[in-house]
Design a protein that fits this description.
This protein has 327 residues and is an alpha/beta fold. The chain has a domain at 15-198: NADP-dependent oxidoreductase domain (TIM Barrel, Alpha-Beta Barrel), CATH 3.20.20. The chain has twelve helices and eleven strands. The protein has helices spanning 32-44, 59-71, 93-107, 152-165, 178-187, 206-214, 236-240, 248-257, 261-270, 283-290, 299-306, 317-320; strands at residues 3-4, 10-12, 19-21, 25-26, 49-51, 81-86, 112-117, 168-174, 194-198, 218-222, 274-276. The strands form two sheets. It has an eight-stranded parallel sheet with strand order 4-5-6-7-8-9-10-11. Strands 1-2-3 form a three-stranded antiparallel sheet, with no helix packed on it. It is globular. It starts with a strand and ends in a 7-residue tail after the last helix. Pfam families: Aldo_ket_red (PF00248).
Length: 327
């Protein structure tokens, strides 16, 4: 089982034993012109984990923020935990290292603490000289993705080589279901340290979480506030879904605890040994989102939040393309 530190601030990853902060700062949708300053401010607020991805298109600016924070003595490299992700166009073994080195270069680092396979979807390679990040469409326009037949086993073997070479400390996966993980564990020489998934009270995924943690795979939750990040993308059920931050139950629990609704949602995950990676450009929310380990929810409150589960998934390639990986 995954091990949580005595002070509950970190999760010990297998097999390396490295400690991953249980509260991090997510860089998805952080504008490039604000990235550098947001990184610095997040470190000042106490965050020590930054969750990045090549697909976010802002790793160079994140790297500038990391350098600034280190140069100013706000943090030391050994005190921070940096995650990035392999994009779908780089699943072929000959492109895995290329993608990792590009992320390292943009972030200004010699080694990543964690490198994840972003999706269990392999799509046609796009030369970075043509377009970076390549996003989903081979021609940059769509409407259809061009799939590439690369077995996950080949991609994972290339990920393991990154560890062998010292470019990455830990490797992991994202947006994968239990069947895929079962198959991966049959051939993995280095087992995945982390599974990152969409996770909030509308999408609990309890069996998947139980299975992963039983197999020493730590969980990181993204989209902890539910539909909030997907409304602007025009996803119909995200627009129609009652916002979790405004849900009567969430607000009631927050009032009783003397906390914000966001803190309650983050605590609901963290209290079950699940790491969270919220983001905010608001200074007060930046600080309050980090303060989710100083209080506990009652068993009744935890169960009440869990009972909100509707299986509502917002980050689903099947909604945008004909790739229903969660069907």
């Amino acid at each position: 089982m995954t091990v949580v530190s005595q002070d509950k601030t970190s999760i010990t990853l297998k097999p390396t034993g490295q400690r991953m902060p249980i509260v991090g700062y997510g860089m998805w949708k952080v504008p490039r012109d604000k990235c550098r300053d947001q990184v610095v401010e997040s470190f000042k607020a106490g965050y020590r984990l930054l969750d990045n991805a090549a697909d976010y298109g802002n790793e160079k600016e994140v790297g500038e923020g990391i350098k600034k924070a280190i140069d100013e003595g706000i943090v030391k490299r050994e005190d921070i935990f940096i995650t990035s992700k392999l994009w779908n166009t780089n699943h072929a073994p000959e492109h895995v290292r290329e993608a990792c080195v590009r992320s390292l270069t943009d972030l200004g680092l010699k080694q990543l603490d964690l490198y994840l396979i972003h999706f269990p979807i392999s799509i046609a390679y796009v030369d970075p000289a043509v377009r970076y990040p390549p996003e989903w469409y081979h021609d940059g326009k769509g409407p259809h993705c061009t799939l590439e037949h690369v077995p996950l086993q080949k991609t994972w073997e290339a990920m393991e080589k990154l560890v062998d070479e010292g470019l990455v400390k830990n490797i992991g996966i994202s947006n994968m279901n239990a069947v895929i993980i079962q198959d991966l564990l049959k051939y993995a020489r280095i087992k995945p340290a982390v599974l990152q998934i969409e996770h909030h009270p509308y999408l609990v995924q309890a069996p998947l979480i139980k299975y992963a943690q039983k197999n020493d795979i730590a969980i990181t939750a993204y989209s902890s506030f539910g539909a909030q990040s997907y409304v602007e993308l025009g996803i119909d059920h995200a627009i129609k879904c009652p916002p979790l931050l405004e849900h009567d139950l969430v607000k009631s629990i927050a009032k009783k605890a003397g906390k914000t609704p966001a803190q309650v949602l983050l605590r609901w995950a963290a209290q079950r040994n699940i790491a969270v990676i919220p983001k905010s450009s608001n200074p007060d929310r930046l600080k309050s989102n980090f303060d989710v380990l100083s209080f506990d929810l009652s068993e009744e409150q935890m169960q009440q939040l869990t009972n909100l589960d509707q299986g509502l998934r917002f980050n689903d390639p099947g909604l945008y393309f004909d790739i229903p990986i969660f069907a």
